[in-house]
Amino acid sequence: MKKPFFSIIIPTLNEEKYLPRLISNLKNQINKNFETIIIDGKSTDATKKIIFKHKNFFNFKFIEIEPNLSNQKNLGGKIALGKYLIFIDADMLVSKYFTNIAEEQIKKKKGLVFLPYVIPQEKKEYPEINIIFPIVNRLVEWSQTINKPFSSGPSMIWEKDAFNLIGGFDNLFGEDHHIIRKAFYWGIKAKCLSKLKVNFSLRRMKKEGKLKLIYHFITATTYLLFKDKLQEKTFKYKMGGQIYNTKDVKVKKEEFFKGYLKQINKLFNKLIKD
By CB atoms within 10 Å of each CB, which of 74, 212, 234, 241 scores lowest? Predict the structure, then answer.
């Protein structure tokens, strides 16, 4: 049996709302030279039912383990048959040409790790957010050149042997950023693929609000440029689609800016002292 060029690895936890869209995208790929590996963190919703509903439509593997993002991704990488591993979040969307463009770009660029560009799914709904994503993509690309590399987060592509050689994702908060920094220390530099795009969900912004998104962007970028890793207590991110079923209480702009400007000032002062 011929091995696939790609293994697409999707970690899930209660993603009944978003996963069907991504599965539909994968079923419609022009280039079908891939397998799909879903590592579920013991979802309590209909995620597992949805996965098996589509099992006859494409080549896929399903494993259920205790919820842990790094462990889920690493297990996917361990059992993968593909030459290249595509890690992608369950709430992402891709065009039907995604695997086609990915294979073309990898063969053209020649490397061991690649970072697609991210664009917002809800760009028409939130046009004012569109300005942030080109900045994010450029910052990620720029970071690869200044010995402080990081990633955009939701998706990356690894040559399988290189991924396993460096030990995969470490069990740290911000594992997707940390692995790019770790790869750099191994002499592996990520290459950004501007022609390959993943559609990023703004579900976190819908829950927390635009102001928090901007704050997290500023603080995350600052930490990644001045420190080696993110601090979980600063961001309080949790895994699982279930947390997006309710909205956070809205905060008045005046209260937000007073509180978060103090936090940003405190952060910069701490970084300067360190």
Answer: 234
